[in-house]
Amino acid sequence: MCNSLAEKPDDFRQYIRLVFDCFFEEGKLLDKAQMVESLNVSVGLLPDLIIDYPNAKLYAAEIFSLAVKHSILTTEEEEKYK
What we know:
The protein has one domain. By secondary structure, the chain is mainly alpha-helical. 73% of the residues lie in helices and 0% in strands.
């Protein structure tokens, strides 16, 4: 997930859909704990990424919303991440 924060908008959304829809939902290749860990790593790297990739902050918000949609985070947890 973290690497997608440095991509162009269309590429970012394609990668994120792949992670959430294909790897997590359909393929069950990642479990909820792994997805939360990935979110935590991404958030930890976000301050440095924002310097070089201004869209990273917007992308992170989209990731949090998708995490709620896929029941990885609650709306309360999403607010804490934001």
